[in-house]
Amino acid sequence: MQSETARLTSPLPAVNDGARHGANPVGPSLATPRDYFETLKPRVMSLVVFTALVGMVVAPGHINPVIGGVALLFIAIGAGAAGALNMWYEADLDAMMSRTMKRPIPDGRIQPGEVLGFALSLAIFSVVALGLFVNLLSAALLAFTIFFYAVIYSMWLKRWTPQNIVIGGAAGALPPVIGWAAATGSVSLEPIVMFLIIFVWTPPHFWALAMLRTDEYARAGIPMLPVVAGERETRRQIVLYSILMAPVGALPYILGYTSALYGTVSIITGAMFVMAAFRLRNAPEGEATERAAKKLFGFSILYLGLLFAVLLIDRGFGLSFGQLTW
């Protein structure tokens, strides 16, 4: 922990002030396609596409594979647009954090105005195309998701309240609902349950990461929970949300949507998540806390991916413990 603290508190390299504050470049843009692609937050986009796919596949009925593929493409573009808008608005914060300072804008590889125009174009295109080629409900949900992430979360919640990630988590939880709506033209209880799983999972997942970057968030002036309430309260909140998340993760089985396969996996991994949260709460301060936070953060990614993968297998492909049921 001492080495991590020393790294976090060491002086940051200089960044391109013009790129941070929106000065126009001199001459033609030097940004590469890779720079533009990085602004889309491809790792976040991949999670969005996966959970949207699960929502689409587990929905009742059958969607034309071409329409389904087109829908996923437009959802991915919309998710990328939201990520690029977030990068545009948070370039000043990204420049002050080692985890994000090499992103294209703070690194001076691309101008903020270029990212803004690129993001708005993709956002409008993805929503209009999804409405024209799929249905209006999925397009409306995609538009709301982009707005919520770019405006409500990025421009308001993140800089003003330690509950930013709790409320803002709604944006990341909507993709399976969009996928369901793309397949059915409606929304029912089952996609709302998938929404709740991601929504309740987000705070303990992100707070575990925030505990590893507390000094950076403080330096950037971002009121993350560890900065505002301290490490002890953050650990307590992680435990509380983890205890809530375990039964929520099992809801598809409890409500009768899935077989015992999903029920078994969700109950076992939910219990493991709670145990990891308690280990973090009880870890001594210093390197033990850092190790416990890293383990919880890593397991949280595995947990969500596994739940949705099993949901896809169990509900989407009709498999239960390897046996065909369709």
CATH homologous superfamily of the largest domain? Answer: UbiA prenyltransferase
Order of helices and strands: HHHHHHHHHHHHHHHHHEE
Question: Termini distance?
Answer: 52 Å
Strand order of the largest sheet: 1-2
CATH architecture of the largest domain: Orthogonal Bundle
User: How many beta-strand elements?
Assistant: 2
Mean pLDDT: 89
Main sheet summary? 2 strands, antiparallel
Tell me, briefly, the overall form. flat
User: What name does CATH use for the topology of the largest domain?
Assistant: Tetracycline Repressor, domain 2
- Reading off the top of the CATH hierarchy, the class of the largest domain is best stated as Mainly Alpha
The fraction of residues assigned to DSSP E strands is under 5%
Main attributes?
326 residues, mainly alpha, Tetracycline Repressor, domain 2, 2 domains, two-stranded antiparallel ribbon, 17 helices, 2 strands, 75% helix, 1% strand, flat, disordered N terminus, disordered C terminus
